[in-house]
Q: What sequence folds into this?
């Protein structure tokens, strides 16, 4: 592959535009070609410097133009200056890890590449400069240390010196407590980089984060970076959701200052208010809307999800196809799983009431048990637990029609604690009643592909009776 094509791959990776085959090709190049790895690092460093120049309000557009010109002038010359390159990488280590981690995580770096540790059970510390400790985790997670070490088997109680944590599945969650007592938590398919060099710096590349921050030192607030905003936190409770296009902030207690990167505008967000960056209008915090008790997925809008999204055709609705997932505690099992984060455009929290039902509609290629789970949070955004709707009794096979379509109904009264968090049952909520719905997932466990596709997931509140459910389609209760 020519340098031009390699540079195209690297640049598109830094913009999160690669498809699966392109990611595989780039990974092969990075694993087999030292010059490709060096060029990748050079581009990542330049991308970081260029982005930071654009984001600093004290810099003019001319500064960015000069930096771009400098890159064009010097590109390819760093290979002759290894000492300078090492110094630059040392200064930008945390950012480089954040930029490159996504590629490594998505593909699983082959042996001979970045060193990987599969078991740290015997380690109580992974660094002499611990800044935080793991206080809770579940599901499939990967942690990358600030020296590039990949660790798949992280443990509660492990002390960390910084790095990147990524949730790999809809049922993943991770809680971190800093030395000053501040806690942050990510859930679902999220990626968070964190460091503390006298001031806490976090970068939420994607996903959801909730935090309970103790009062910070004067002049050294916690800073949380997303692709579209910077949050300045002195001490408060809040949650934030970030993706490629926008950042949504909800503040439960205290105050958070948000700066939108596109235009440098800033706003203070007070308790019980929220603000989003995905508008060209002035930033305007609004009161968090009242809760709702009904919810329905809208897959035609291509929401944030775990699985392969398939657009609607003349014959079929838009769907989310389940993809393989290997549970970290059961490496001999391959599940086929699809998951959705719960999001409403108006920001209303979705509260699960006793007596509610979940309806899952979709397609199967062959008969299978369709398993269903949910993730819930407390009103302040803190993780409350995970529950399964198919464990009270043995899950029957889903009833399929002639086209392979099925509809399964799960009664909230029969939900039980998900096995992945059972060891923390005394610390988490005993049931999902009255809590906020944060995510759902559906999977099969047939030893191979079942062709599982989800076309709709719906939360039906208790005031909707069975006759109303029947009007939506076939009605088969999974009990």
A:
């Amino acid at each position: 592959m020519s340098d031009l094509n390699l540079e195209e791959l690297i640049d598109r990776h830094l913009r999160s535009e690669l498809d699966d085959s392109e990611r595989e090709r780039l990974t092969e190049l990075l694993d087999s070609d030292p010059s490709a790895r060096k060029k990748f690092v050079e581009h990542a460093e330049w991308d970081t410097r260029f982005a930071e120049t654009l984001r600093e309000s004290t810099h003019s557009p001319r500064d960015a133009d000069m930096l771009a010109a400098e890159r064009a002038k010097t590109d390819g010359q760093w290979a002759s200056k290894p000492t300078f390159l090492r110094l630059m990488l040392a200064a930008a280590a945390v950012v480089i890890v954040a930029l490159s981690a996504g590629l490594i995580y998505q593909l699983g770096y082959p042996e001979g590449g970045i060193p990987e540790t599969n078991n740290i059970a015997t380690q109580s510390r992974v660094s002499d400069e611990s800044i935080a400790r793991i206080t809770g985790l579940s599901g499939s997670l990967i942690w990358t240390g600030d020296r590039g070490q990949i660790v798949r088997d992280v443990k509660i109680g492990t002390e960390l010196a910084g790095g990147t944590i990524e949730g790999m599945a809809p049922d993943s969650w991770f809680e971190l407590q800093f030395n000053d007592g501040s806690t942050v938590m990510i859930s679902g398919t999220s990626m968070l980089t964190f460091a503390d060099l006298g001031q806490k710096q976090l970068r939420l590349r994607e996903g959801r984060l909730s935090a309970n921050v103790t009062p910070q030192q004067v002049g050294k607030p916690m800073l949380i970076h997303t692709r579209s905003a910077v949050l300045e936190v002195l001490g408060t409770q809040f949650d934030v959701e970030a993706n490629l296009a926008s950042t949504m902030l909800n503040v439960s207690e205290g105050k958070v200052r948000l700066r939108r990167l596109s235009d440098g505008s800033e706003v203070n967000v007070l308790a019980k208010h929220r603000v989003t960056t995905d508008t060209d209008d002035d930033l305007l915090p609004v009161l968090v809307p009242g809760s709702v008790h009904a919810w329905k997925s809208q897959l035609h809008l291509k929401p944030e999800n775990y699985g392969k999204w398939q657009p609607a055709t003349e014959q079929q609705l838009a769907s989310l196809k389940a993809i393989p997932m290997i549970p970290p505690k059961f490496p001999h099992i391959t599940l086929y799983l699809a998951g959705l984060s719960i999001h409403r455009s108006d920001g209303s929290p979705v509260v699960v009431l006793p007596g509610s039902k979940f309806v899952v509609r979709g397609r199967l290629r062959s008969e299978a048990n369709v398993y269903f789970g949910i993730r819930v949070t407390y009103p302040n955004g803190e993780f409350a637990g995970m529950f399964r709707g198919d464990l009270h009794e043995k899950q029957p096979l889903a009833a399929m029609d002639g086209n392979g379509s099925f509809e399964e109904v799960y009664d909230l009264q029969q939900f039980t604690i998900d096995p992945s968090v059972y060891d923390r049952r005394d610390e988490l909520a005993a049931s999902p009643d009255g809590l906020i719905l944060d995510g759902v997932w559906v999977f099969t466990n047939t030893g191979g592909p079942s062709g599982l596709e989800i076309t709709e997931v719906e939360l039906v509140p208790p005031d909707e009776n069975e006759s109303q459910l029947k009007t939506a389609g076939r009605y088969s209760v999974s009990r």
The CA atoms of residues 71 and 127 lie 35 Å apart. The first helix runs from residue 3 to 14.
